[in-house]
Design goal:
The protein is α/β, with parallel strands linked by helices. Helix content is about 35%, strand content about 10%. It has helices at about 5-10, 30, 35-55, 60-70, 80-90, 185-195, 220-230, 250-255, 255-260, 265-280, 295-300, 310-320; strands at about 1-5, 25, 95, 105-110, 115, 125, 130, 150-155, 180, 280, 305. Strands 1-8-9-4-2-3 form a 6-stranded mixed sheet. Strand 6 (about 125) and strand 7 (about 130) form a beta hairpin.
Length: about 325
């Protein structure tokens, strides 16, 4: 869970190899009814696919520096970069499922209204046969006052006792399944704080170096979705350190290399930087005598605009085409 503090065309260009896991998602109509949903979902998938592609380039030194800042390892550390690439590439490779029961991930924007209290405590989602084993005052993680923007559920409910002459309640349900809820809070809170809910809210001609830092993008709904997606049992990432230490730019920078690779928000912020790179923005380049503030600004997540950032990356793309 997360606390606030043109995929097909892109792949067709051959920008990096993305692993195939044959995993599928299903989107509930409550999400499709949300304003801007198609942009939000595409943005989420772009975060994952573009992170994978940039990490696959041998010449994208700016994104390599972003990776090192977030994950505490150089891109030459194969085990570290491969783990991140496999997760980001894996998410980018998910495809729509033909039916909800057959999907590995069911995405809802119902503010957890599908959950029903159990007499034994906690809640159950009977449509997906999922269990929420904590007896709280209202269903699921979107309960009032908590301030959550999303939560992922992966505890499957025990199969009901068989009834003679009736098919099993689990018939047709994908065993490796989870559900994700994007809470109402995620859609309403950005406007209250006058912060963007999606990258499209930032005009292309807006000077993003004027932002306080990448932390101003922490309310992007796509950042929430990518964070939540990494909680799926396929990846098993967690919120390392709990609510007080897992979320936000400042907290992710405090983690060591091992914890960084296990913490969902590190991946979410990497995805945000991949989208920013498409606009020419990245962390300040270090070692430049005319930019003495670069090191501190990098720690603060400040953005710099460089005219040659995309050209650097495209050299790597050309190398893949020649291979």
């Amino acid at each position: 869970m997360l606390l606030h503090t043109k995929l097909a065309a892109f792949l067709a260009l051959g920008l990096g190899s993305i692993p195939s896991h044959a995993l599928t998602y299903w989107i509930d109509p409550t999400c499709e009814a949300k304003p801007g949903w198609s942009d939000i979902f595409r943005e989420t998938m772009d975060m994952a696919s573009k992170s994978h592609a940039r990490l696959s380039s041998a010449t994208d030194t700016d994104f390599a520096a972003v990776f090192k800042r977030i994950f505490k390892d150089d891109v030459s550390v194969t085990a570290s970069v491969d783990q991140v690439k496999n997760i980001m590439g894996g998410i980018a490779d998910w495809t729509p499922a033909p039916t909800r029961p057959s999907s590995n991930l069911r995405i809802y924007c119902d503010n957890d209204k599908r959950w029903v209290a159990r007499s034994a405590g906690g809640f159950t989602d009977s449509s997906n046969l999922m269990l929420y084993p904590q007896s709280w005052g209202s269903p699921g993680g979107c309960r009032p006052g908590l301030g959550l923007s999303g939560e992922t559920y992966s505890i499957r409910a025990p199969e009901p006792a068989p009834v003679k002459g009736k098919a099993s309640a689990l018939a047709g349900q994908e065993p490796n399944r989870a559900t994700m809820t994007i809470c109402d809070h995620a859609f309403t809170f950005p406007e209250k704080l006058q912060l963007p809910a999606k990258m499209k809210d930032l005009p292309l001609n807006k000077d993003l170096t004027k932002l306080n830092g990448v932390g101003d993008l922490e309310l992007l709904i796509s950042l929430t979705m990518l964070h939540e997606w990494t909680h799926h049992p396929e990846y098993r990432l967690t919120d390392v350190g709990g609510a007080s230490n897992a979320y936000g730019w400042d907290n992710i920078l405090k983690k060591n290399a091992a914890d960084s690779r296990q913490n969902s928000d590190n991946y979410a912020y990497l995805g945000a930087w991949a989208l920013l790179a498409d606009r020419g923005y990245t962390l300040p380049r270090l070692g430049n005598p005319v930019d003495p503030q670069a090191d501190q600004d990098a720690k603060d997540g400040k953005l710099r605009l460089y005219n040659n950032i995309t050209k650097r990356w495209l050299k790597g793309v050309a190398r893949y085409f020649r291979a």
